[in-house]
Amino acid sequence: MPNPSTPRNNGHQQDPAVRRKNFDEVAHTFTKEEAQKEADRCLHCPTHPCQNSCPVGVHIPDFIAAVKEGNIEKAASEIMKTSLLPAICGRVCPQEKHCEGHCVLKAKFGSVNIGGLERFTADTARAEGVLKAPTPAAATGKKVVCIGSGPSSLACAAELRRAGHDVTVLEALHAYGGVLRYGIPSFRLPREVINKEVETVQAMGVKFHTDVLVGATIKLDELRKEYDAVYIGSGAGLPMMLGIPGENGVGVYSANEFLTRINLMQAYKFPETDTPIKVGKHVIVLGGGNSAMDAARCAMRLQPETVTIAYRRSREEMPARVAEVEHAQEEGVRFEYLVTPKEVVLDENKHVTGLRFTRNELGEPDAKGRRRPVEIAGSDFVMPADTIIIAIGQRPNPTISKTTPDLKVTERGVIALDEQGKTSLPGVFAGGDIIRGGATVLLAMKDGIEAAQKINAYLEGK
Ligand code: FAD
Ligand code: SF4
């Protein structure tokens, strides 16, 4: 009989006082005993609301049952039926919005720690050598290219290869993984985990090439001639800025640049590495999403005196994962809610010295149901700062759309899809942040998997 009333195990983490000074992983993987005890809480619900609310439909009760039995190979194979990036998803998916948010135990005893169990399964199966890449079907003779190597293209490429196609991934940067590598810091997602998940896709026979910027190195139309189908999973890597006075001052970064320097170029190891990063005494991060939390927590590890996240709404409206907000707070990041940035204050050398804000109160809900911030007249104040990091969102880079005039994009620059989910070009498919303008790892993967199914159907009719 299951024991649902056993208290939920949230897992162990590095001590905040220690971890705020290093880039080692914050959360630890369950031991086998801990995993089995947590798995024993699951009721194996026949209607599996957890699985129904997972964007890629991971077989959650079945993999948890296998963990409970101690059969890690079976647990891993259950997950791998629908998701080939389990060690990544177990670490970074917003489980509270998907599976764990719908677990029947949530209200009374606390949801099963599904993310922790997924991570345990992937890490343990990999360590024991039983995490197996699916065997591809017989060769179809069709060639498909996936642009970008973020979660969306990785998921699409793996599904296409599973169906027997010859699949190539082209990546603009010198390393694979997209935001997983250049955006999400190693203390949340170790680089080794990304490498291993990419190796699983490589082991299936998918070919990878770095340093290929489609639209510059090679045009989309040339790829269309060379391949039977194309998947665009090029993400949304262009940072949005505020457009306020002083924004071009020395010491202002977009979160994208700040995080890329730290995560991709490893600037926190400078001068051992070539790229430097300097934050001074006081850092302000603008925004309330995962990028803002990641930027603030990276900045904290560079050891300034203060790091403050300034957000224009209240805690309730913050879109970041709950765990990231809590971890940031534990590490000493301060939060200033209900403020709108008005001007970056600069000295005579154009170096940042502060940020002028206006205070807000919450007004009527907007179209998404979030209450709007309304400025309070005469409430301006200046917060001292040496570094300001703008983390208010990203949009797609126009490199491909600008060099492919027939590819329709919306006013927001995302690739437009018709009612059947098709782009304006035959044989060209798209998904992930390039169609959503910014979402989550799982939604990007879901798009990649669904596009692979559409590509399979398209190639059958070719
Ligand atoms: P990306 O991950 O952006 O990958 C696109 C890839 O395409 C990149 O590698 C890029 O270099 C490459 N590319 C771009 N243009 C070209 C071109 N012309 N030619 C060749 N290659 C090209 N989601 C979560 O679920 N949980 C989190 O904790 C989380 N944290 C986040 C933290 C940060 C800092 C950010 C920015 C986002 C976070 N997200 C999180 C969102 C999530 O990472 C994205 O939604 C997801 O990565 C989108 O996947 P994608 O494959 O569409 O694009
Ligand atoms: Fe187990 Fe919760 Fe899913 Fe039910 S809803 S099968 S208890 S994880």
List the helices and strands and how they pair.
Elements: H1 16-19, H2 32-39, H3 49-52, H4 60-69, H5 72-80, H6 86-92, H7 114-127, E1 143-147, H8 151-162, E2 166-170, H9 179-182, H10 191-203, E3 207-209, H11 220-226, E4 229-232, E5 238-239, E6 252-254, H12 255-264, E7 282-286, H13 290-301, E8 306-310, H14 322-330, E9 334-336, E10 339-346, E11 352-365, E12 371-375, E13 381-384, E14 387-390, E15 394-395, H15 399-402, E16 428-430, H16 433-436, H17 441-460
Parallel strand pairs: 1-2, 1-4, 2-3, 4-16, 6-14, 7-8, 7-14, 8-9
Antiparallel strand pairs: 5-15, 10-11, 11-12, 11-13
Helix pairs in contact: 2-4, 4-5, 4-7, 5-7, 6-7, 8-17, 12-13, 13-14
This protein binds flavin-adenine dinucleotide and iron/sulfur cluster (SF4).
Entry keywords:
462 residues, alpha/beta, five-stranded parallel beta sheet, 17 helices, 16% strand, globular, binds flavin-adenine dinucleotide
Distance between the termini: 53 Å
The hetero compounds bound to this protein are:
flavin-adenine dinucleotide, iron/sulfur cluster
With strands numbered from the N-terminus, the spatial order across the biggest sheet is: 3-2-1-4-16
| DSSP strand count | 16
How many helices? The count is: 17
Structural class: alpha/beta
> Biggest β-sheet: count, sense, barrel?
5 strands, parallel
State the share of residues found in helices, binned by percent. Answer: 25-40%
Low-pLDDT segments, ≥5 res: none
| Overall average residue pLDDT | 96
